[in-house]
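INFO  loader      accepted 1 record
INFO  loader      residues=211
INFO  predictor   begin
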Amino acid sequence: MNIQLPLISDPLLLKELEKHGTIQVIEAGKTIIEPGQYIKMVPVVMEGTIKVMRTNEEGHDLFLYYIESGETCAVSLTCCSAMNPSEVKAVAEEKTKILAIPARKHEEWTNEFRQWKDFVAQTYQKRFQSMFEAIDDIAFKKMDERLLKYLVVKSKQAKSNKLSLTHQEVARELGTSREVISRLLKQLENRKLVELGRNIVYVRDDLEEFL
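INFO  predictor   done
INFO  writer      dumping tokens
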């Protein structure tokens, strides 16, 4: 098993990752972590993408951020350290390969390896920034602005201008109704920013410029 992570070059740490980490392949759409679930491992994404969402009591999901190749989940790190249940839902956006690190090893490596400590610190910093952006979007942006940003982020993640999306899926992840999303998508289409097909949204190359 050849482990490659952008911030980790220490041969001893890489050897530990190979020794104690377990490769898992998660099929697209499969839930990895549920709210209320105790987390026994830290998932480091090797290939693919994980979507992290907040879920309310009615089961409605609100999209927060993506975890991509070379990254891990700040919530998993926190829950492992504090032995608390998860407060988010994590789903494989596409077929994803992760390196599952036992929780006890995360604690040991934080004390033993500077590069693992730095990797964890950068993860916290990036995820807290993502959370602040999500809060700002909800608090200060109109739904049409949030939808536009959502499509830009989705397009970047997919590395494609063709997005396989239903109006209901978008509404669920933005915390609104399908009718609102359908109306706003039609407005974007009238502005020639997107083109709508059956469960498909085509976005312009320069869509980000309209944010």
